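Lines hold sequence, tokenised fold; shown next:
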Amino acid sequence: MLRRMDFTLLMAALGIIIMSLVIIGSATHINTPGEERYYFVQRQGIFTILNIAAAAFFMNFDYKMLQGYGKKLYIFNLVMLLAVMLVGQSALGAQRWISIGPISIQPSEFSKLIMIVCLASVLEERVGKLNTLDDLMPVAAYIGVPFLLVLKQPDLGTSLVFMAIFFGMVFVSGIRLKLLFGIFGAGIAAMPLLWHFLKDYQKMRIMVFMDPNVDPLGSGYHIIQSKIAIGSGMLFGKGLFEGTQSQLNFLPENHTDFIFAVVGEELGFIGAVLLLLLYLVVLWRGVQIAKDAGDVFGRLLAVGITSMFAFHVLVNVGMTMGIMPVTGIPLPLMSYGVSSLTTNIMAIAILMNIQLRKQKLLF
């Protein structure tokens, strides 16, 4: 099993996680004096070890077992998202979390990976059969229900991730390009209408994306401080624990959504490029695993996971540099958060499982 392991993917993912723990420690230690100074990094480290152990255990099972649980997982996903609406906790203007003892989990994070499994189960029988809008509508409705539940929280960022996963998986399923381009065209044409359904803070985020100085002390503050942090890092950075924007609390959410800005400030252009290269390796291996998968279900799983990672990295990094709107999407394996960390480690484990079983077929 060790000989057949995808060590390139494993090393890239571990490299991101190690960098994450260092940067989280740097970003948060100054805000928590005394013995709790490294609370966030210790907590993230503990859950990293637990998740890696769980992933290693599940590597012993064939990923094809997931296919038989597609319907049950879908129902569980809906129940979980409905529970957020009924008993969830609110923070930062959104109701997204459920408390289980001392731990707060974000079901919408788990929902992304669950929907990849469910969608792969549904699309397997429809590969090469998505020729008309009528063929596509049942699949769109299938993902549309959890999409709307997440949008209701509201969590626009995760909803957009659902769309990225959906389009990535139906593209590989052989959807007609004419139909796909037609959907994109209809979406672009409908944007002026969709504007009226956005909440005020969502409209402001789009306006701030166009010009952060529209609200420099409010909605535009995050982007302005993030760009200052990244720019001030220059080539080699200011050094770990030396970033003024992060250490002096000018940069909000510096250990979660805007952690890439801390990397840019403290490790500079060199550190930022290194991190992006690690993500490039993960995405490259995801594409190769999808290409070499031994069955259609495995290929769809790999494409869904790779689409999820690609969208997260593109939007989060773009957001911190001001070339994407602020959506609250975490940076995979980097941003602090138990739910996000668990989802991403399990996603990497599934990719490795697909590669492992493919190698097993060859031998």
User: Anything to note?
Assistant: The mean pLDDT is 88. The two ends are 12 Å apart (CA to CA).
